[in-house]
Amino acid sequence: MVGENIIFLRKRNGMTQEALSERINVSRQTVAKWERGESEPDCSSLMRLSTLFNVTIDALVGNVDEDQKIVGVAPKGKYFFGMVKIGEDGSIVLPQKALEIFNLSIGSELAVLGDEDRGFALVPKKQITDMFSLVDSDK
Predict the structure, then answer these.
(1) Residues 79, 37, 43, 19, Cα dihedral to 10°
(2) Secondary structure element (H or E) that encloses residue 122, with its range
(3) CB atoms < 10 A from the CB of 24, how many?
(4) The pLDDT value given to residue 68
(5) Nearest 5°: CA angle at 48, between 59 and 38?
(6) Selection from 19, 26, 72 nearest residue 46 by Cα
(7) 114 three-class SS
């Protein structure tokens, strides 16, 4: 899993094994061994890879939920929480992990934003309020 993720991230960033090895201060052969699964990065190498690719170490080593794997290795702070269904009354149930990460609970208010070409998003009320206060302060 780690090797596959390193290959994915290296290619997504347009890097050769040589370029990656130079950026994280290991030999090209070491990167090749990681990618083939012959060895795994030590803690300091994982930290350098995580920083370089802007991903969590958990995502890098594959400690993510199955539903997150379909989008590859997500950047830090970006999540794919899975699929939800719209109920008969138009309600949706957000995944527990999303509620925890964004500190949401029953009664939390979310703004529904939409774009006909790109879909829609749910944004916590505080972020919308903060955004509008920044716009007002620019006047």
Answers:
(1) -80
(2) strand 119-124
(3) 19
(4) 45
(5) 70
(6) 26
(7) strand
Tokens of 39: 């060895």
Compute φ and ψ for 28, nearest 5 degrees.
Answer: -60, -35
The answer for residues whose C-beta is within 8 angstroms of residue 100's C-beta and 6 or more apart is none
Per the CB < 8 A criterion, the answer to whether 82 and 65 are in contact is yes
> What's the burial of 125, exposed, middle or buried (CB within 10 Å: 0-12/13-18/19+)?
exposed
Structure tokens at 64: 């993510």
Side chain identity, residue 77: G
Q: How far out from the chain centre does Cα 31 lie?
A: 23
29-65 pLDDT, tens digit per residue, is 999 999 999 999 999 999 999 999 888 888 888 765 5
Cα 139 from Cα 128, distance rounded (Å): 18
Q: What is the pLDDT of residue 138?
A: 53
Per DSSP, the three-state class of 117 is coil
Q: Tell me the C-alpha to C-alpha distance, in Å, between residue 78 and each of 25, 59, 105, 132, 135.
A: 27, 11, 20, 23, 25
Residues 6+ apart with CB under 8 A from 87: 93
